[in-house]
Amino acid sequence: MKRLICCILTITVLFSAINISHTIPSDAAATSDVSAASNVGKKQLYSEIAKHLLKREKRFSVSCSYTTVVRSLIDRLCGESESGFYHALYDITHATDNPKTTDDGDYLYGILWGANCYYADGRLCFYGVKYFETKKQTRIVNQYTRKTARKIMKKTRNKYERLKLAYSFVVNRITYDTRKKCFYSAYAGYVKRKTVCNGYALMLYKLLMEMGFPARFISGKVTNGKKWYLHAWNKVKYRGKWYNLDACSDDEDDGQVYGDFFMKKNKKFSRTHRADAFY
Questions:
Q1: SS3 64
Q2: Quick one: average pLDDT of 65-76?
Q3: pLDDT at 39 > cutoff 60
Q4: CB 76 within 8 A of CB 84
Q5: If you placed Cys at 7, which of 103, 162, 197, 219 could pair as Cys (CB 3.0 to 4.6 Å)?
Q6: Residues 6+ apart with CB under 8 A from 101
Q7: For 133-173, what is the HEC assignment?
Q8: What does the pLDDT average to over 211-220?
Q9: Residues contacting 1, CB < 8 A, separation 6+
C-alpha cells in the first residue's frame, strides 16, 4: 500500500503546475487547421481536436461557431476545477474509437497533462498542449508491447495465466520513480524502467489490449484511510466480467509481485479506489 500515497501526491503536484490562464499568447497562431461545419456538433468537434492530439501537436485550431459546447469546453479546460479539466480531456479523447489502434481513447487521455484554449475569429485555438510521450515514443511503446505480448502468449494458452504474466511483467519491469521530476509514461516504463502509477497503468493497458483482453486505463482517487488522492489503475474484462488491477500498488521494488490489487471485484476494490465520475 505504500506506493499509493507516493504516486498520488506526485500527480496532485503536477496538476497544480498546469497553466490554466486565459491569457492569449502572441505566438498562438494555428499550426494546423481543420475546417469543420459552422454549427459543428459536440462529437464532431471533439473528434477534430483528438486528431490533432494524436499527432502530438502543441498548437492548432478548429474552425467552428461559438456555441454553448465551445464555451463549456473552454470553461472546463481553463477553469479552476481539477475534475472539470480532466473530464474535458476525457470527453475529447473518447469522442472516437479506432479499433485498429490503442493510441487513442484511454491511452491518449493518459498521456495528456496540459492544455489551454480560446476562441477568436471563428476558430477554437489550442496552445500549450503538453504530453507525457512524443509520437515517436508511443511507436516505440507499441513495438515493445507487441514483442512482450508475443512472448507471454507463447508461454501459455491459459487466459488467466496470461493475465498473471502480464501483470507480473509490468511490476517487475518498473522501479517506482521517486524523483521530484518523475516519469509518467509507458515509454519511461519500458526504456527508462522508471515511472509512477500513470505509467504502470498505461503500460498494462496496452499490453492487455494487445493480448486480446478488453481493458481500460482508469483515473480516479485512492485513499490512505484519511484522505483521497489522484491515482491511476486498470480494469480488464475476463469471462464476461470486469475486474480491477493496480500494478503500481502491488509493486514494492523487492522482487515480489503482491496480489493485493490483482483481479479484484468492485465491492472490495472500492474501499480504497474511486474512479472518476465520467467512467
A1: coil
A2: 95
A3: no
A4: yes
A5: 197
A6: none
A7: CCHHHHHHHHHHHHHHHHHHHHHCCCHHHHHHHHHHHHHHH
A8: 98
A9: 224, 249, 260, 272
* CA dist., res. 28 & res. 255, Å (int): 48
Q: Residue 40: its pLDDT value, please?
A: 56
Rounded Cα–Cα distance for residues 194 and 99 (Å): 29
**DSSP state for residue 191 in the 8-state scheme:** I
Mean pLDDT, rounded, for 197-206: 98
CA distance 120 to 127: 13
Cα separation, 248 vs 3, in Å, equals 7
Asked whether 270 and 243 are in contact (CB, 8 A), the reply is no
- State how far the Cα of 199 lies from the Cα of 176, in Å rounded to an integer: 10
Three cell numbers written together for 80: 479552476
* Dihedral sign for Cα atoms in the order 12, 209, 242, 84: positive
Residue 100, exposed/middle/buried by CB under 10 A (0-12, 13-18, 19+)?
A: exposed
Residue 247: how many other CB atoms lie within 10 Å: 29
Contact 152, 172 (CB under 8 A): no
**Mean pLDDT across the chain:** 88
Q: Is the pLDDT of residue 13 over 80?
A: no
150 contacts: CB under 8 Å, gap ≥ 6: none
At which residue does the C-alpha cell 497553466 appear? 19
Spatial distance between the Cα atoms of 171 and 168, rounded to a whole number of angstroms: 5
DSSP letter for each residue of 87-108: HHHHHHHTS---TT-SSSHHHH
Q: What's the mean pLDDT in 30-51?
A: 70
Element (H, E) at 203: helix 197-210
Gap between the Cα atoms of 242 and 263, Å rounded: 9
pLDDT digits (tens, 9 = 90+) for 58-67: 999 999 999 9
